[in-house]
């Protein structure tokens, strides 16, 4: 199997709106290259986009453990937990992402979680 070609195919599937197809292509690549962050991140996003939240969470926790300064992994992990209704667990990851990188979508996700939990914005 040509891993690079499979990754390109998976990216095409993902960008074409087929996260399930992308995940099926990415799973063996992550197995073969467990330290490849880009592949694991795309797999996590494919799981998230196909509502496979437990699988997305597993991949994202691995990314955060490997690189605690990965603001995007924290953000998507927070969003995954938020999407599963686990706002209290999501909040620390969303706060870290928002503190590390001042992107509008990070701030919006943090605000949503805080609102859901009834926490004041400046607490």
TrEMBL record:
<dbReference type="Pfam" id="PF14559">
    <property type="entry name" value="TPR_19"/>
</dbReference>
<protein>
    <submittedName>
        <fullName>Tetratricopeptide repeat protein</fullName>
    </submittedName>
</protein>
<dbReference type="InterPro" id="IPR011990">
    <property type="entry name" value="TPR-like_helical_dom_sf"/>
</dbReference>
